[in-house]
Amino acid sequence: MLDRGSLALDAALASDLAVVNAARVSFNQESEELSERDIGLIGFLTRNRHGSPFEHGYFRFLVKAPLFVVREHQRHRAGHAYNEWSGRYSKLEPEFYVPDNVRTQVGKPGAYSFEPVDAATRDRARHEIEANGLRAFEAYERLLEQGVAKEVARAVLPLSTYTKYFWSCNPRSLMHFCGLRNHDSAQFEIREFAAAAEGFLERLMPHTHAAFLANGRVAP
Question: Is there a single domain that holds both residue 209 and residue 126?
Fold first, then answer.
């Protein structure tokens, strides 16, 4: 994922059956196995935006991503929790993102698209980004050697620096995240992580995921 990134499922308590039983408790009913009627109920709940039954599951991911991706990711707050590696308490590692997908913006804000640059521009951009990262980490090391606190020395590091963090969310909040970030209009880098997370939703909750797709990728 990207050049050094990753997203791994660390823990999960999520199933289509849990959604069904969260809804059926309203009538003091419970399903022991998922039936066709239950699958239909998942579709009904999704179409009609009855979202609370989808909030009882749990996904926890361990993510490694560049800082600028993390900052965009952590704009999602409702139904999400994050704990990140602290550059204040521990020394950061010399890893930073050097993109293969170098692109240019075409059009004006609100009505623009991105297109690949030519090979020569791509190579120059990659060289500049990599060289800047190396210089920044050299400066970071010098400051630490001079006794500057880690919380201060990190100020020289670029937004391409990799960090890692735990991310927890419920199925409803995950669908909302994927609907926005695994989308053609989303930034390429965060879309890579959203697509990976959506793969786990599809694997663990296939009927919920199918209903999400049938509903135009709109979360209930």
Answer: no
Judge whether 1 and 7 are in contact, CB under 8 Å.
yes
Burial 118-145 (b: 16+ CB within 10 A, else e): eeeebeebeeebeeebeebbeebeebbe
8 Å CB contact between 9 and 61: yes
The percent of residues in the chain predicted with pLDDT above 90, rounded, is 94
What are the pLDDT digits (tens) for 91-123? Answer: 999 999 999 999 999 988 777 889 999 999 999
Domain assignment present for 93:
no
| DSSP labels, 39-58 | HHHHHHHHHTT--GGGGS-E
CATH code of the domain covering residue 34: 3.30.1360.170
Tell whether 125 and 172 lie within a shared domain: no
Domain ranges, residue 107: 103-156
- Are the C-beta atoms of residues 166 and 10 closer than 8 Å to each other? yes
Q: What is the pLDDT of residues 156-181, one digit of tens each?
A: 999 999 999 999 999 999 999 999 99
Could you tell me the CA-to-CA distances from 179 to 109, 148, 218 in Å, in that order? 21, 43, 6
Give catalytic residues, as residue numbers: 181
